[in-house]
Records
---
Amino acid sequence: MAIERTLSILKPDALEKGAIGKIISRFEHAGLIPIAVRLQHLSTKEAEGFYAVHKDRPFFKDLVSFMTSGPVVLMCLEGENAVAKNRELMGATDPKKAAPGTIRADFAKSIDANTVHGSDSLENAKVEVSYFFRTTELFSYSHKK
Ligand code: IDP
Ligand code: MG
């Protein structure tokens, strides 16, 4: 398996629940290392641009409105198989369908407010990480045993 980088976003509901630390702790325990972390309140333009692939979906407006309703935590996670591992920890998009023990099963209350975003492929991860971070803002390091 290769070392990959993926984009993680803790959505506004994660911050409102006071769950930043708990969620990041799950990533760290799984060997997904935050190599860039930033709190940001997305503008409508930024959220629309980020979710441009969904622009024709019926939920697009609600998604943008939710993602701009409060600050988010933007993170680049690095580790073995990071893209798939992050998706596994997140659980299914609809928290009602998310496997027990996943972040969405434990924290999310609806498909709109589903607590976390994670890139869905290595290709998209590269695009999404560079949407929010310059390469000079990524600081690689390892966990020592
Ligand atoms: P993902 O976040 O699990 O990758 P996507 O299909 O990429 O799911 O959708 C992006 C986001 O759009 C979801 O996280 C969710 O917040 C929202 N979304 C997706 N499908 C629906 C829906 O059917 N109704 C309302 N919101 C949705
Ligand atoms: Mg997605």
---
Amino acid sequence: MCEVPVSGQRRVLVTGGSGLVGRAIERVVKEGGGCEDEEWVFLSSRDADLTSAVETRAVFQKHQPTEVIHLAAMVGGLFQNMSHNLDFWRNNVHINDNVLQAAHELGVRKVVSCLSTCIFPDRTNYPIDETMIHNGPPHSSNFGYSYAKRMIDVQNRAYFQQYGRLFTAVIPTNVFGPHDNFNIQQGHVLPGLIHKTYLAQREGTALEVWGSGTPRRQFIYSLDLARLFLWVLREYKEIDPIILSVGEEDEVSIKEAAECVVESLGFKGQVVFDTSKSDGQFKKTASNKKLRQYLPDFTFTPFRQAVKETCEWFVANYDTARK
Ligand code: NAP
Ligand code: GFB
């Protein structure tokens, strides 16, 4: 993994280093995924509020990174997005502009930012690929977040055109794993279902799955995504983004995802679907053909195993988990 020849010491600054994806990268680095010439710095919002240009510049000046993995963002599930489109747009546009400009001013060699498959047009052909980002409006539920993320791709191309900067981005599908946000109202579907199932089991009530259960998602385990991030940081040389996803054949319905959580936690109660709640985007099936051309042998953790590990982490860390 470490054969990229880079002279001198490298310092990788990870914005959003305290979140789901940041903590997974930290773990993979600690478990041997790091290189000898790499020093890693993981930031949280306590180190700097990246919506502030002044604080962003100061934290970059303090750490003098040679490379940046840019994860920091206002992040939330379908329902949080539906009620806060303006906040998602404003916070993320400010964070992204501040981070990319600070990286440019400090001469950072490479920045890898994080987009999401939810930013693609809602009306599209399937499978979605990397060329389709700007082809039409995103799903109305999360247009604030989606347009803010799309602008990273615009900025990356502009920094390259004007200054030759190697600023690129990855496009993961729905991520889950240890250290996720298990807040039921604000978070994504898998941590929400895990938390709800845990409570239903404890209180002897039914598990309420929101929506019809028919929408489909490709889920990626945060630890798999972390391994792929390290590869992108070291080896990927394109400005154009790359989708980081399991195969199309691994897409599951929300109902199947709920069944997997129920099985992992050994929940024996009733499961009900609240169809008065939104289904959101029906699907955003993405192609991982480009990834497979680079890494034909990369092995993803099987979905069941990853859900089981995440459930076990949540139960073991219930008192301190974000919820
Ligand atoms: P997360 O768990 O919510 O973590 C968000 C991170 O951003 C935290 O470290 C948080 O710091 C930091 N942050 C938020 N606002 C900040 C601010 N104003 N200043 C400084 N730091 C700030 O999110 P995640 O799921 O790891 O997401 C990481 C990246 O992946 C994001 O760019 C997201 O858009 C992208 N992504 C996520 C998913 C998904 O399903 N989760 C899917 C596709 C793409 P604190 O801990 O201090 O609050
Ligand atoms: O992960 P999620 O909130 O977001 O999943 P998206 C939403 C789907 O899961 C909908 C159903 O079909 C919901 O009806 N669902 C069932 C639930 N039970 C629950 C529950 O307890 N909590 C939640 N949250 N959903 C997000 C975007 O879209 O994807 C974000 O809004 C982000 O911007 C993320 O990019 C990756 O997959 O629909």
---
Amino acid sequence: MAEQLSERLRSLRALLDQYSYEYYVEDNPSVPDSEYDRLMQELIAIEKAHPEWITPDSPTQRVGGRPLKAFSKVTHEIPMLSLGDVFSKEELLDFDRRVRQTVGNDVTYVCELKIDGLAISLTYEKGQFVLGATRGDGTTGEDITNNLRTVRALPLTLPEPLNIEVRGECYMPKRSFEKLNEDRRKNGEPLFANPRNAAAGSLRQLDPKITARRRLSIFLYSAGTFDREKITTHYGLLEAIKSYGLPVNPESRRCATMQEVFDYIDAYTAKRDALPYGIDGIVVKVDSMAQQAQLGHTVKSPRWMIAYKFPAEEVVSTLEDIEVSVGRTGAVTPTAVLTPVQVAGTTVRRASLHNEDLIREKDLRIGDRVVIRKAGDIIPEVVNVLTEQRSGNEKPFSMPTHCPECGSELVRLDEEVALRCINPKCPALIREGLIHFVSRNAMNIDGLGEKVITQLFEKHLIHDVADLYSLTYNDLISMERMGDKSVTNLLHAIERSKQNSLERLLFGLGIRFIGAKAARILAMAFRTMDDLSRASVEELTAVDEIGDKMADSLVTYFSKPEFQSLIAELKAHGLNMNYLGPDPETIANADSPFNGKTVVLTGKLEQLTRSQAKKEIESRGGNVTGSVSASTDLVIAGEAAGSKLKKARDLNIEIWDEGRFLETLR
Ligand code: IVH
């Protein structure tokens, strides 16, 4: 009986894996979803009765992990490089010329779709999926194993007990993306702008249960560690990866000539919309691995492959109006108001026109038909005007001479293109300054968005940032769409912001030229608002990365009585005026691979003495000890290392040779 049951369990697992593969990899399911669900329920029931039979690779165990507090870091043994890109066929011919110069004329390429998702790395040990990581900065990524386990296209076990690291793209199929946004719309949640953002957001979930609901998928296209003995071409590698049941995109083709490469590009430019997943270009790779090695790579990217990026999608709309707004610094910017159009997955209604010169250069007139595209597929811009479609009724536009908010005359400062309102009492400047003060990188007051600030300001409940700290329950409950709960939360958030470290306040004050980074550097260097406000131009510029413009602006700011009294008022409200962040040393070490690590040096180093090496590690936050034990994180082994090295191997501790050590010190 038990034997029959365990036999059924095995066949259920095999069937479920097969159906997942058909559905997620081949996009060609042989059974309806209900059949999959029925078999899954049967498997769950058997495993419930026999918990001792549950194995980590069972299809029921994809969502096994608990929510994490944070992702841990993963070092890529072989760095994950990035890819050079080109935007035209001419540039592709240049690439081809460079390749042929190095390897001669006998070149075959493989063309692949450039999947619009996130680069990931998958490690299998003895055929079991043990580690999934993001690319991160190419050297260090994040451990997202539990999230990747939920991706059904990814086998948890390979048919052979292989040790391999394969790489590819995790993406959200268009179907999943639409369903996700539909659900979010129903729940009143913000929508994802495109499948790539949705995939990124889903992979960065600390709770794998959420990732599991997001229906991601994967295509693999390269390998880190792989037994390449019999593999001599990229195409062969793809076939090998596929033969292990790993998902490989079926559209890749070998191309013997550049004409074939261009035909491939044309064919998929046309088919792009019909594919069930998003692509943003075509990757062209040299097929022969011997030639790949000959071409090598730069620090950033391999010389044997290149990405041809599709041109940004362009659509036509009508310029209904040009609105002018005044920003925090008084700069007056024109914005195009457009008839809403879909561009690259989102609805575009407005596009910044930056300044008057741009309007003149493009000769934009209200009523014009204009071409719109998204720069970097994110920020909408007006490309040009279809002058041939003009009816003659279009109206030329000129910038106002006076501030649309306070009526004072606008000026052009020095060589600037922008017109500015320089009235410090201009309501627009004050309102935008308040919005900036509460924003995420400044005081980060949750629940105080643009709309609430504008209402509070218009009702004269706040005039400057200090007034935020006098707001009462009664003030806030009278605002539109503010209930008891949100008012209480908001008051808490305001109270909490008093404890922010100095750099947030400093950035929030909106002092000219002092961005978030400069604010952090200054807060770290001077530690208190008092010391900073007393600093001279010389003392300020003595700080690394603080230039004359910033120093002048700070000294001017702190010399003005109105700002001195504003700071005194904030102090009286109980705002913290000190730097509370980590000290500069800890920050410098935060990215160091030695930080917080216990390191053992063994054997003879060529380039450094033992004590120099020790000093280098300690100055980067590491701790050097004499003997290898289970608590050792890293062993650096020079020439003729003996028993310590052996012990490190036995304990499976990370081992570096001198070369790797020196590289890290650089
Ligand atoms: S090969 C050296 N092949 O595009 C990097 N990349 O813009 C090796 N991508 O980081 C990349 N589809 O995340 C390769 N068929 C494909 C790809 C692909 C998408 C991504 C990948 C890479 C990015 C570069």
